[in-house]
Design a protein that fits this description.
120 residues; alpha+beta; four-stranded antiparallel sheet
Length: 120
Amino acid sequence: MGLCKQYFYTMAILLILLPILPNMKLKLCFIALAASLYATAQTEASWLRYPSISPDGNAVVFTYKGDLYKVPTSGGTAMALTMHEAHDYMPVWSPDGKQVAFASDRYGNFDVFVMPAAGG
């Protein structure tokens, strides 16, 4: 995809999603995540996919090369939540923020799994 198209799509997503995000902290996290994705996409291939912000806005779970990782929204080192030869993706937080559901093909087809948000 060309650089102009990437910029256009990033800006379009921001314009669509920013008005519906409930608070300023989530808006700032989304802007920072979009900017970092756009910046890394220009210089190298990025495997970061499917970010999901926790209900309290303090953490993001995302997929990287088929595994799930969690990082604080304030920044820092991402912690692996899964390490498996299967493809884990599409994390979704529980409403209370204590669990993360995700899809995985570890048994041949994509099934839904639930794990503690701290890992395990």
